[in-house]
Structure of Histidine--tRNA ligase:
Amino acid sequence: MTDQEETRPQARLPRGFRDIPAGDVRARGAMLATIREVYERHGFSALETPAIEYLDALGKYLPDVDRPMGGVFGFQDEDGDWLALRYDLTAPLARMVAMAGDRLTKPYRRYQVGPVYRNEKPGPGRFCEFFQFDADTVGTPVMAADAELTMMVSATFEALGIPRGDYVVRVNNRKVLSGVLEAIGLGEDGDAAQRGTVLRAIDKLDRLGADGVRLLLGKGRRDESGDFTQGAHLGEAQIGTVLAFVAAGAGTNAETLQKLRDLVGGSAVGAEGVAELEEIAALVDAAGFAEDRILIDPSVVRGLAYYTGPVFEGALTFPVQNERGETVQFGAVAGGGRYDDLVKRFTGQEVPATGISIGVDRLLTALVSRGLVRTDSEDGPVLVLVLDRGEIARAQAMTAELRAAGIRAEMYLGTSGMRAQLKYADRRTAPIAVIEGTDEREKGEITLKDLKLGAELAKSIESHDKWKEHPSQVTVPRGDLVASVRQMLAAQAARQEG
């Protein structure tokens, strides 16, 4: 073995990461454009923050409260400071707001889209790098800000083609849950790790069901892979109270709110949470968002520890097949809530804030499954063939002419002959091939080959005579390049619509 072979790297991906093909990137871009339009229509403006932050700006508020650095990709810089890839887009926003101070106009309303990184065990549909699309309002305590976000998520789903009845935005309040925890002896001065375990257990209700949550509230649960998750070690009476809370959802928001009032009993913080939910319910109802779109649901908790008030979750309710072949609801694709203490960590002063985050990759999967977007439907560029390397400048000129006219175009850059170039065009899903051989060049003409029509004819026409009745290529004057390509593309679009 040579030294070169010994040092050759292995081509592999880190666990939990993936390459994303062009079709998926294109579909994601179209989806993001729609979400961006909805967010901007609601008055939010764009912001970008770096992917790397100081660890102390992130770690304390990860779900793994017993492991301050658990869940992040952390590393030390040359000065010995600990850095980490951002876990979400909210903590970087809080850091930015703290740095900006009074220079920032409040309420500050921003949206941001980008990748986030979680050093957690990957699984089906779960990756260590994924995209989120957030919107946040910072600097106001009023419940109208929270209500607006729930309505904006609803508007986003419908703008993407998801009809009413196929989604619901569920709303709860962490203060109500705090009241319930007080009732079972786990108040704010109790064991923070145990409280965090309870929150994460309830947050898994949709995925694990009541029996799975019961195990996590008790001694713990072992999953199918054999991994064991430690539970909250609550007693049976405590577990019963918590499960009664998450099951309090009823047919109407008014009925659910009444049940929650009864559950929180004499807890002041619990009563405050119910009052906030009542205000949100009244606001969304006044705006025409009925319970089939926005629903009070006590089972919504959200796992992150920094939420201080209302929490919400946008879920898709249509049926899909899971990896076991079982029919289940698609589930949550968005989540958020109020986090009034997050900026306070940096400044010592409370800055009320609320936000929502859409899981971009998960939402895209849902849209594809419903046929609302496709990852394989877009045509490639018009391909200009190069049959004579000595005349490549002419091919380049035609390519530039098409691009200047707004037509997506590519000049063949390989060294193969015409047959191989046409095969390349097929693999690129090019709609048209532009051909200029010696004969065409001498006559001042070009040949346009309708590759989409040719493919359609190949499937439906068997006889050579029938094929000649439907020619898939035409010869036109060189000066008519742009007009003729446009005409052929329009004919293709008309056939597709027909």
Remarks:
- Confidence is low (pLDDT under 50) at residues 61-68, 463-468.
